[in-house]
Amino acid sequence: MAERLSIGIDIGGTRVKAGVVDLDGHVLERVSRDTPTTSPAAVLDAIGDIVAKLRQNHHVTTLGIGAAGFVDATQSTVLFSPHLAWRHEPLRDAVQRRTRLSVLVDNDANAAAWAEWRFGAAQNEEAMICLTLGTGIGGSLVIDGRPHRGRFGIAGEFGHMIVVPGGRACECGNHGCLEQYASGNALIRDARAAVERGEDYGKRLLERVDGDLEQVNGLVVCGLAREGDEDAIRSLDEVGSWLGIGIANLAAAFDPGLFVVGGGVSDADGLLLEPAREAFRRTLTGRGFRPEALIVRAHLGNDAGMIGAADMARTMRRRSRRNRRRRPRTEGGALGRLSGRRA
Ligand SMILES: [Zn+2]
Predict the structure, then answer these.
(1) pLDDT value at 51 more than 90
(2) Does residue 78 share a domain with residue 168?
(3) Helices 270-283 & 218-226, crossing angle to 10 degrees?
(4) Which pLDDT value is given to residue 18?
(5) Are 91 and 131 in a shared domain?
(6) Which of 2, 21, 55, 223 has the highest CB neighbour count under 10 A?
(7) pLDDT digit string (tens) for 295-326?
(8) For the chain, first and last CA: distance in Å?
(9) Ion ligand 1: residues, Cβ under 5 Å
(10) pLDDT tens digits, residue range 180-190?
(11) Number of folded domains that form the chain
């Protein structure tokens, strides 16, 4: 009864989205605002305000935060966020002190994958990989009902697998990373190049955005493609093919039953996923002699991060309470064991 409702907050580079989420993954009330990018204190203030507002009408005990960034394996500290001022930010404890709620912090991709596994496209799947195509590629692997975080919490950075040695420069400092070929950014790069070369495709794109090149994004390309624009379809086809190759690599390594593809670019649906499926089948190791994973579109859209963060916080609290009841109190708990392992 007491743990029925949970708040989820999805902190992205531009927007903070929050909501009260029930046991079935439904959002009962939502709030959103621009992300304060000035300082960690400003983000903390925003979180405090949002939580206070949502608690006016709902009784909640847990709060999950999905953040765009690297979160450590204890789900308490944001190690680094490319868009925000967080560097080794002890976010969980700060929010817990402020709100008196039980708080969990995770990477936004893990939160989105969790939501798809619990309530969306991947229910009851014992091994699934979720790929969120936006500016880059967010990735997460859920195995046996747990997100696989890796030893340091950084697992799932599939967008930075190198697929073209010496290829396009990536913001991470390497060259040829998958996300330079199979993300929204790849579509934008292609579109802007067409504009700069003065191609007809470029002109059609510009018409869509009243001549403002900055507004040309993946959604504009998807819109044109859905109307049958051959160049936009070709561009999506190329991005989809690279995605399929990336997915074949992931299948070779992890052998999941299902790949869930989300993010703005997944709006293109079959125009992106069909070429991905074809490239996947062409590239998959052992093809013809093994069962093949399905590649499907995510179900929960933009709400996945918020819903997943809320539900994860609730579920992990329940699990840790259960474990505490079962385990005799010795040897300093999980943190003690973690630090002991490295000593
Ligand atoms: Zn990279």
Answers:
(1) yes
(2) no
(3) 100
(4) 98
(5) no
(6) 21
(7) 999 999 999 999 999 999 999 888 888 888 77
(8) 42
(9) 160, 170, 172, 174, 177
(10) 999 988 999 99
(11) 2
93 domain-assigned = yes
CA of 180 to the centre of ligand 1 (A): 8
Q: Examine the domain organization and report whether 108 and 135 are in the same domain.
A: no
Range of the domain at 226: 124-298
Per the structure block, which two tokens stand in for 318? 């329940």
Question: Residue 84 C-alpha to ligand 1 middle, in angstroms?
Answer: 18
Which range of 33-37, 77-81, 247-251, 330-334 scores highest in mean pLDDT? It is: 247-251
80 and 190 in one domain? no
Compute φ and ψ for 83, nearest 5 degrees.
-100, -15
Distance in angstroms (rounded) separating the CA atoms of residues 174 and 339? 31
Mean pLDDT, residues 264-280 taken together: 92
We report the CATH number of the domain holding residue 198 as: 3.30.420.40
Angle at 97 between CA 93 and CA 99, to 5 degrees: 115
Residues 76 and 176 reside in one and the same domain: no
Q: Is the pLDDT of residue 151 over 70?
A: yes
If you average pLDDT over each of 7-16, 227-236, 326-335, which comes out highest?
Answer: 227-236
* 51 SS3 class: helix
CA of 220 to the centre of ligand 1 (A): 25
Asked if residue 333 is part of any domain, the answer here is no
Q: What integer best gives the mean pLDDT of the chain?
A: 89
Contacts of 144 (CB under 8 A, 6+ apart): 126, 127
- Predicted local distance difference test score (pLDDT) of residue 76: 82
Q: Do residues 109 and 164 both lie within one domain?
A: no
Cα(68)–Cα(71) distance, integer angstroms: 9
Distance (angstroms) between ligand 1 centre and the Cα of 97 equals 36
> Do residue 197 and residue 228 come from a single domain?
yes
